[in-house]
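tool_call predict_complex ligand=Double cubane cluster
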Amino acid sequence: MSDTTVDYHPMWTELGLDLVAHDMLLTAIPQMYADAYLSQQDRPAGMAYFDFVLSEIHGLRIKELQDHKAAGGTVIGTFCLYVPEEIIRALGGLSVGLCAGAEWAYDQVEQVLPRNTCALIKSAMGFKMGKVCPYVESADLVVGETTCDGKKKAYELFGELAPVYVMELPQMKRAADLELWRGELDRFVAKLEEVTGRRLTFEALQQATKEVNDKRRALQRLNAARVASPAPISGKDALLAVQVAFYDDVPRFTQMVNKIADELEARIAAGQGVAPADAPRVLITGSPMSIPNWKVHDLVEKAGGVVVSEELCTGARYYEQLVAEDATTLEDLLDDIAEKYLDINCACFTPNPGRIEDVLRLAREHKADGILHYALQFCAPYQIEATTVERAARDAGLPLLRVDTDYSMEDVGQLATRIEAFLEMLEA
Ligand code: BJ8
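tool_result ok
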């Protein structure tokens, strides 16, 4: 996972990682990456950047975080889309996503969390308890949020291991909820000002908003290209771009994704794709997929389908909405940030009709032949909301396959059979 010419072990030691366990992790992930990614044909040349980023995920990027801290900056860990990265950035912080997508140290985790906790929570806890995540060890503060019950309660235990601050996210979208959420942003600003030792200014927040919007605009461009047939980029590669968006350097990432978007637009003009024009097109919706969770995309695409959009937190939910850029005061800009974030349609909200509209709209825009609803086992919000999504898809005449799974590979054979049968049905 790291440049072989640089030995990062002294840095990892300094961060307090368990070097033996960490070396094991760094052996496993490149194998998974090679199997899922490097085996693909006709990838856009620009994806070489992401190959490099993944190869340096615990190396160069962590070094950059340490250099940033040494220069007086902070690192803020997050677990959820609702934590506004613009505010972190405006206060000299680097925001890093901490959700993890692999089983780790479950033996330790299951001593404190019930076995029937979703894989995302168990994995995040496992990476911390097993001391294998240099991102969480770099964080000056970890920001949690009151979304699902599992996360909310797990933060209490996580707080015994790291400095944790929890934002209260309302679970409805009435005017009173927006007011609560807006007040919560003020409290978040105050907390970050305390941690960073800086004062939030309008100019800094305006600049950070523009930079983060530019990042989202670049992802929008990349994903707009996926409307084309044949698809110019695989779903797996598009998923990876969003996964990396949560921790990469913002201006560099924006530049690289725009370069890939240029390439995709040229591919479309030349009629060039990564899959045949008649490959079944699938929209994926559901629980988030964190690195290195590429399982379902990989199964769909190895079975001959192509994933054309994701209604996921590691997908459209992350990049579709932008913060308005016309505010002239700090208070107004914070109002705009509050509105943008409360507009995200997570299944933690009730009712949540916006998500159903998003799923159907994305399926239509990206000419999906079918929908795959992906939920992590024991993720009650998405598993329960799957029923509503399934009904809406049926009413819209779109076939839907429900996949409830976790991070283990035990069910891969069975899932492959179900996905192949689904794709055959879409082709018929
Ligand atoms: S905005 S999806 S990142 S809360 S998978 S921990 S919901 S039991 S992650 Fe999420 Fe924010 Fe919503 Fe997105 Fe709970 Fe489900 Fe686990 Fe989940």
